[in-house]
Each structure stands twice: as C-alpha cells, then as structure tokens.
Amino acid sequence: MAVYTDVSDEELEAFIDTYDIGGLLSFKGIAEGVENSNYLLHTEGGSFILTLYEKRVNPDDLPFFLNLKKHLSKNGISCPLPVENKAGKLLGELAGRPAAIVTFLEGMWVRRPKVAHCSELGAGMAKMHLAGLDFGMTRTNSLSVHGWRPLYEQSGSRSDTVSPGLCKIVEDELDFLEQNWPNDLPFGVIHADLFPDNVFFLQDKLSGLIDFYFACTDALTYDLAICLNAWCFESDGSFNVTKARALLNGYQSVRTLDEKEFNALPILARGSALRFMLTRLYDWLSVPEGALVTPKDPLEYLKKLRFHQTVESATSYGLVL
Fold it and tell me: Which of 103, 128, 147 is the last residue of a domain?
C-alpha cells in the first residue's frame, strides 16, 4: 500500500456520496507498499479502505481482483469485501483513477513472524487455494517466468549500478529458469504476494488476508515458494528451516502436496526470489518523484536466490513427502 495520488476533501466527499456508507468523518493516507494509493476512511457507517489503482495496474484486471475477494469471502476466507456503490458497481473513478472501497479488516501484521505464525499462514493459504478452485474467472500471471525477461529489460544495464555484475547474474538465472520451469503442476487461484504485511493476525491467530492485486491463476505451489522467501529468512539473511517446516506442514494439514509439487519446490523458490528481486530492482531505479514510499532493497532477494541455487531437494525446506 502507498500514496501516489492526492485526493482533495471535495473530491473524496463527492465519491463517498455515491456509496451508502454514511458521511465521511476522517481519512488518512497509508504510506506502505509500492503499487496503489490507499486511504483509511472512517465514515458514519464504519471503517473502510479506499484504493486508487495507479498506472501500473491494468484496469482490465480489476474485475478479477474484486470478484475474487467476493468469492473468497462467500466461501469462508477472511479478506476485505468490496463495497458496491449505489449503482450496484464495485468500481468507480476518483481523481482520474479507477477506485474501489473495501471493508476494513481487523488485525495487525507481524514484523517478526514466529513459527506459530508460519503454521497459521500455511493452513490459511491452503484454505484459500481450496476456496478458489471453483472461482469462475482466470487471470494469467504476468509476473511468472515469461514476464521476467521483459521486466528485467526495463532496468537493463542500470542493474550494475545497484550491484556490480548483477546483469550477468540475472541473465544466467533467466536462462536457467526459462529452460527448467515446471508447467505440469496443479493450477488454481493464488495470492502471489503473501508477504507478512498482507497477512493479519489477532493474538497470533490468522485473522485475514489482504491486498489481492497480484492474484492470478498459476501453480498453487508457487504461492508456497513466495512465502518461503517472504517468511522464512531471518534479518541476517539466514534461512530458518523451522519456520519453513511449520509453513509447509500447516499447508499440508489442509491440502497435501503431490510428488510433482514436492520436486518442483526448489526451482519455484528460485523463481520467486528472482521475481521479487526484479520488481524491487525496477522500483529502486524508477520510484516516482514525490511518492510517499521507500523502495525495498533488491539485493535482499539476490541473497535469497543464492541460497535456493544450492538447494537440491524440498527436504532442505523441512518438507517430507
């Protein structure tokens, strides 16, 4: 979450009037994340999140994101529920941007996840995967293996200004992943961005999942690979196999991985590390002037990639088939 687009009081009040959520009491920008502009709203009807979708988000994808959250909520997954306006639509326009309002989700994200949090996340992710199996819409993952080279080319030779030799490292890894990426794994709806700040807890129990704006149809196990990177490395860069085991066992307590998924996990983890390194690299080199957001360090994910390149089996993640 972040704030890229300023909204005047008059514009916001006019937009709120198109909803049946009462008058506006207060609002403030949320200065976290890198994708969209977000505001916390307090109205006479309660608390809500207002999102303005910035230029990097394809407007054609918004019906998928919004209807997915409706579907998951209907099927027992705790997530922000899009609010219909008085015309019965989930999407409007504010300050020249597509905009939507969703319900406020109680809970807090944990800055230092514990083993118990990883277990809760694994089970919650598996429940989300099962709930999404009968969702009627699909969306291609534009940030999967076929999208990484075009993404890298937006940074290109500038990559070496971040770290000498980074260009060669990325090009070699792209060659490897493009030749070895698995294409025969169980598919379904994945979140694709379940970082700690997108997972809420109350008293160490998972209270909900937020920020579905990378959600897509892809290998279910790829979500696990993303979370191995996002949840199971310590601040010193070391991999915490105890957290990884808890994450994977929590997942398998709800949905069991098959042999192909087990064998694919190391390469999926490599791909996940490269994907987030490339998006962070682009953001590092391309943050809009005046944006209330601090870009994240791409080299954190280079270190994680280096670790996964040494992994030969999912047993290194604490997983037993």
Answer: 103
Do both 54 and 153 map to the same domain?
no
Q: What is the DSSP letter of 125?
A: H
- Per-residue pLDDT band for 290 (boundaries 50, 70, 90) equals low
CATH of residue 62:
3.30.200.20
What pTM was computed for the model?
0.91
Domain stops at, among 53, 69, 103: 103
Strands (E), the chain: 24-29, 37-43, 46-52, 92-94, 97-103, 187-190, 199-202, 205-209, 216-219
What interhelical angle do 259-286 and 220-231 show, nearest 10? 60
Pick from 235, 229, 228, 276: which is nearest to 122 by CA? 228
By CB neighbour count within 10 A (0-12 exposed, 13-18 middle, 19+ buried), where does 130 fall? middle
Residue 108 lies in a domain: no
**Which pLDDT tens digit goes with each residue over 165-224?**
999 999 999 999 999 999 999 999 999 999 999 999 998 999 999 999 999 999 999 999
